[in-house]
Predict the structure.
Amino acid sequence: METAIKTSTIKDKLIFEYENSKLFLFGDTQLRDKAMESFYEQGIPTRKHEEYKYIRMGLMLKGEFNISINENCSDAQIESLKFLKEAYVVIIENGIFIEGASNVQNLPKGLTICSLVDAEKSNSPIFEKHYAQYADVKADPFIALNTAMTKDGAFIHIAKNTIIEKPIHVIHISTASENTLIHPRNLIVVDENSQVKIVESFETVATTAKTVSNALTEIVVDKHAIVDHYKIQDEKELGCLVNTTQVIQQKQSVFSTHTFTLSGSLVRNNLTVVLDDEHIESHLNGLYLTAGNQAVDNHTVVDHRKPNCNSNELYKGIIEGKSTATFNGKIFVRKDAQKTNAFQSNKNILLSQDGTINTKPQLEIYADDVKCSHGSTTGKLDEEKIFYLRARGISVINAKKLLMHAFASEVVNTIKIEALREYVQEKI
């Protein structure tokens, strides 16, 4: 039976639902209660909150929402979302790990993929050591809400000295005939000297109702490990997504993350990467395409805590119609993080008079021997280049398409999985 939230304020609705759903939620009761207390103190952020000043999160949760959803996609619908033919596929449907639809049988030695529920039941020491240790419930209300109300998700562990050749594709599916709110969660642990490519895709399937996914992924990158992480966000017209990714890196590790926001009524990305030892390398790339009345908010934090580390960040946006996009990137260089190289760039193209871009690159530097830079540019398509292309027989529309493709390709070309790169190019 579906359960609907039906009380006064949004905060009251969620607290009411939490109290009535405790038996069906995942995780330690004490941890969940602590998280819900933190959510109660913070509440749903408004435009008075500095981190949320450009987006109205309250509108996303306005009205009644179902929490317990029993609807499922057809096998054909799920198959259509498996755009990587050579991959270990994990299906998370309305926040629940679906083992029967996933391709997690006959896994290579050193790779573990299972639900959070099964990881907890098996008393996995890796799970117990890392679960809910990095995403701080006091740092953001949506982290607190996810920690309190998640039901399931994926646990992925790559053991020491293991190279996983095929990518792991985690497909988050939202589908319902009534307004829904879900809280999927993932824990990914990559042990020392291991390598893996992980793709997370977020899809809303054939629905006439609003779906809100408050997703959280914690990623642990141990010493000398190499991780390529990709997020493909395609939530369609009625889908809303709050996507939090919390990464902790250890000595001499390399982590690359690529976020592609292709659609969605409202998309909020919170990405934090902590460089917690020496000689670490981090790469953050993003591309967001907005149209209509869409709102896309990208907030990134790169936290340099130790010396001799490098980070590079490039986010690009194409804004059309009456849509709104935000980029807020913060780089922290702590007192002990000498010899840090940190670079950040945000570039945007406005295709209409009614579109809005809010961009705020930030540096906080407490060390004195560093190389850091940040910058932001916003403009229209170059009229001279359009004229040049038209003079060679190319139509105005195709000339603009060529220029936008060239603009986006700098980010798209960072994708190392050929099939994924082709998929994103086709979507764009």
Notes: The chain has ten helices and 20 strands.
